[in-house]
């Protein structure tokens, strides 16, 4: 009798010891370096923000956070690496609209479903796109551009930094919302768009703002509008598309952290809290100001809702344009 009781007690203690193990692991996290996968090449604005955040997280969490650039396939290579990773908090994605949302709409053979593969952590920041015009185009603002486009349907060319990129689908959304017809010209990146708008080969550019700030200030291009709901502090005199008389129009680049699905909530919450603190810190504000980005922050649930809204917005645009890769 005593032996049976002892065995039951021992089994009960053993089972009880197993139950809190995940929580114990989460509480001890991180006990080694964390890898922050950046699905684009080094040196761009996205990479610079990832590195600024990684340094801050490393200081806050007490372990090094290493940025690992895995570029290619519109962010899908890096996204797939995180989707396959163990959900232990040691592999995190520094994501953008492509791998976290829009690539699901565009790539026919995407190796992961971002809504299922990732646990949202936090929406870090947004960045405007700019509608820029060649100085040779006789328009000063969006309203004049709309009038010109309606007088010459399909004659205005708009350079975008790649087929299926955010610049491309934003140009399509602009056409839809403004009731105009433009001819999109996909390039292999921003540098080629800039070269051709300066050379007069295209009339307009729909692209990420930072590369156009110095050009607009020097008068080499004319910034007609920014696409976010708020003006950019870098070009404070340039109105938003909404202010130009098209309420509800908004498109932005955005940057977020995500973890493999199944990552313990305690780890997600620690990453979320540390990132929100970064955004409110002097280091965070300086980093975002240098990159023409606007801080967002918030909860994992708010990030999940935001991504769902982005998919609802861009889904019809992509399907109507039949963009498939």
From TrEMBL:
Keywords: Signal. Gene3D superfamilies: Bordetella uptake gene, domain 1, Periplasmic binding protein-like II. Residues 1-26 form the signal peptide. Pfam families: TctC. SUPFAM superfamilies: Periplasmic binding protein-like II. Belongs to the UPF0065 (bug) family. This is Tripartite tricarboxylate transporter substrate binding protein.
